[in-house]
């Protein structure tokens, strides 16, 4: 690939293997982030070294600070600053905070689980790589300095980060008082700053009553160079009327060796380094955390975190982990952008959402909402192909937050096992959705017999099997149908901003009816295999009744209305001047199979007429410009943004799925393309956020900032675009009993190849499309032998490598 062949924008490019996005201009429209994590220790790291870290919980166990509205942007961060003693010049290896200097070179390489920033200035090349080891609760800043000047250099190295230690929400609202519990000292034997806090707030609310809890962790901050000075006081290190860009300690070269028991905490170290002409120096900074009373992670047997050889092995293991992860699915199609996203960045973003939910990002700060139940059961889609054991554990943990009547908490906090019971109508239904998806991938029916306690179990209650949890979720939804035979919307459905449609318990949701129908239908094969004929018959009857109800009362002539208010008035009809047509009701009428073909065609055609925009599908049209108190927050959002008329990518992805299923494959794929960040971010200065991952939404033409994106990374869009691409476009469709092969491709694709790991086998798919069709497998061969239909029964094949050939599509 030549430089001109690169996929680029004005701020950077993808490497040839697509595994890194390389930022070449640090002055991006917004901070562009990456993640480094191992399932317990997590760090967000921006292209300038910004971000924060936490252990298990971004609210309750935050390690260091990030100021969300800081000016300059993206402060504070993880900084390594080099000072030339002979000239007094000093500069950051991550560009920030010394952003006013003229660097000769800047590159930030965001890869899977690591970020490397390369700078050149004052005759020194610096390379700093941030990553989290796979088996240690720590982050590493691996640094290489190289002299480019041809002269011996006398350098000072300063590394520092601003600490938080504990509850990030409490730090935000009570920081002047909270800082009285800080305790930091320098351990001579470890050659490390050891920091902790003697008080821990775990409650979410504000109360005069104070918890009497010790923060149970210690932080260790060290580096592999000999340490010549340290500071733990932010005020002392930075100095009065200064900032991270010009700390007094660096300007003077004098560290005060402060050890504090109160005050704003910082971990700052100084080392001195003689760098010979054209020479190179390698060293590392380690920030680690462990429970109080445990041996220091710097001394843990068999794990020498402060050894460069060990660090480099850890980094190699991290890269190998992602090689394995991404090898589960690989595609080669005529669309290079599609391949880039599906092979690397869409899989990677889906892995991030699996571990972060919507709870730890630049836009989702992890302070308020905890982990969402509906998010947990959707986000498994991105990882179950790679790590089904982790998904199994995640499902069993999440089921603990279901009540005996089948309802659930809407969200929960990992360290406290508390959450909110909001009565969102759809939340319990994601349980059967997730369980069936797990079984489709794994056929691990043993999970159905696992017993999990209900959240309101008394000591005498033995809990229920996973199968019972699954049935109870559906029975709860069925028990809460309204007078029209549709689910009561209560506090809202998937669209949280329809929160005042049914607070009195009378309003009903059309989308919720279609979604309930879809989930019921999804369980039919499981009930059949499980031999539960009584429940199957009962659920089939409910499915038919729901279909009858929505088609009798919700069809508005060209599309389905969205909901009924508590007072019986409809939402989303052609007679309205705002909120006339909602995308989700139309998409799910088709996805659920409840819309007759003619109505499905007309509903999707109405979407195409009113909602199709340059970057995807608008969630509602026209946007609300006047507040309607009996609809909800949607009408208070800015028109054209968020749920009030934005290109809401999660909902837009469901339209793509509906189009594919309905036979309008070319238009569905066109919307899929419009949504891909490589395409929607063509005007990068308007789009603003990271061009390598999906954003929650893009502003629609209903607002002057059309094309501006926001809330990147942590969106359900990631898993749905990934699985729509793999399952429905490429056509790998896992079922309880095997794999169906059913591509839905644009007519312009003459041929494509793909491979997918599935239940211990690797499936190699080669599809030819000489007639320029979209779907319909004419015939299929497996390892050279023709099979009937397009279904793959893996029990018939002892081989671990299966070559699947489709000579042509015919529809």
From TrEMBL:
<dbReference type="GO" id="GO:0030246">
    <property type="term" value="F:carbohydrate binding"/>
</dbReference>
<dbReference type="InterPro" id="IPR037018">
    <property type="entry name" value="GH65_N"/>
</dbReference>
<protein>
    <submittedName>
        <fullName>Glycosyl transferase family 36</fullName>
    </submittedName>
</protein>
<dbReference type="InterPro" id="IPR011013">
    <property type="entry name" value="Gal_mutarotase_sf_dom"/>
</dbReference>
<dbReference type="Pfam" id="PF06165">
    <property type="entry name" value="GH94_b-supersand"/>
</dbReference>
<feature type="domain" description="Glycosyl hydrolase 94 catalytic">
    <location>
        <begin position="322"/>
        <end position="731"/>
    </location>
</feature>
<dbReference type="GO" id="GO:0005975">
    <property type="term" value="P:carbohydrate metabolic process"/>
</dbReference>
<keyword id="KW-0808">Transferase</keyword>
<dbReference type="Pfam" id="PF17167">
    <property type="entry name" value="Glyco_hydro_94"/>
</dbReference>
<keyword id="KW-0328">Glycosyltransferase</keyword>
<dbReference type="InterPro" id="IPR033432">
    <property type="entry name" value="GH94_catalytic"/>
</dbReference>
<dbReference type="GO" id="GO:0016757">
    <property type="term" value="F:glycosyltransferase activity"/>
</dbReference>
<dbReference type="InterPro" id="IPR012341">
    <property type="entry name" value="6hp_glycosidase-like_sf"/>
</dbReference>
<dbReference type="InterPro" id="IPR008928">
    <property type="entry name" value="6-hairpin_glycosidase_sf"/>
</dbReference>
<dbReference type="InterPro" id="IPR052047">
    <property type="entry name" value="GH94_Enzymes"/>
</dbReference>
<dbReference type="InterPro" id="IPR010383">
    <property type="entry name" value="Glyco_hydrolase_94_b-supersand"/>
</dbReference>
<feature type="domain" description="Glycosyl hydrolase 94 supersandwich">
    <location>
        <begin position="19"/>
        <end position="290"/>
    </location>
</feature>
